[in-house]
Amino acid sequence: MTASYIGRFAPTPSGHLHFGSLVAALASYLDARKAGGRWLLRMEDLDPPREEPGAQMAILKALESYGFEWDGEMVRQSDRHEAYQQVIDRLFSQGLAYACICSRKQLEPYQGIYPGLCRNAGHDTEDAAIRLRVPELEYHFIDRVQGEFRQHLGREAGDFVIRRRDGLYAYQLAVVLDDAWQGVTDIVRGADLLDSTPRQLYLQELLGLPQPRYLHVPLITQPDGHKLGKSYRSPPLAADQAAPLLLRALRALGQQPPCELDDANPRELLDWGSRHWDATLIPRTLTLPEAQIR
Ligand code: GLU
Q1: Relative orientation angle of helices 242-252 and 266-276, to the nearest 10 degrees
Q2: Pocket perturbation via mutation, ligand 1, pick of 143, 175, 186 by most ligand atoms within 8 A of CB
Q3: Which domain does 58 fall in, by range?
Q4: Which residues are annotated as catalytic?
Q5: Is 114 among the annotated ligand-binding positions?
Q6: What spacing in Å lies between the alpha carbon of 189 and ligand 1's midpoint?
Q7: The domain that contains 102 carries what CATH number?
Q8: Which of 47, 137, 172, 230 could form a disulfide with 15 if both were Cys (CB 3.0 to 4.6 A apart)?
């Protein structure tokens, strides 16, 4: 990899960071540093109603107490609405996106794949969601850890929302525009986003944006198989647990920190990790039960 590597960590402030977020942050950080690249921080605050008060500050504090240093100023997606809207207007006027007035209830039987009811209805954009038309084609890419991933957009994703009916911009659109705008070359994130990637590839293709490399790390799961997160009461990353949790996150990522590091501080652990990072050691699995990690 070249010196032009740009990576990023892009937390959503719907809750605090937990061990699963630490694993994703650490992987993207070490991958960037090993490559001599930049590591950016982007707050994905697209959904104020779902934002936990104080979460943005808590995320920054946690990253700092765990020794992470990002390059440049943090970017907030809430400052980027104009850029998102411009692209939506363009896609709409080109007929690549359309307005949808289907209710949640109406769509219940379709299990997340939009059946195209409003596709050719010509609705006005007011009080409507905006959906992107997807082609009846398979998209695929080679993930650096998970290998080849394929998805037929029409059958497995369907026309997807890029702006919600309540006016909020959708993650799929914002992430693609911001990664391109920030020059991100390498996306390292949790495997829960693997099946979002083909939709993002389609958007990149449509908008003439470069395709980054992808690396999806295993999702850390709870005993019940769920993703760690606020709703399952996983504890926030405590400042006084930084060193042991960083060591544990390194092991979750298949890295082999020597026992001399048992007394190291967070900065020393990140420095060791940056020098010794080997992405080929990351377990090739979509999920990793937290209880299995030493
Ligand atoms: N904001 C997303 C999350 O917290 C991550 C987005 C991404 O890395 O593409 O799950």
Answers
A1: 20
A2: 175
A3: 6-79+183-196+207-292
A4: 230
A5: yes
A6: 7
A7: 3.40.50.620
A8: 230
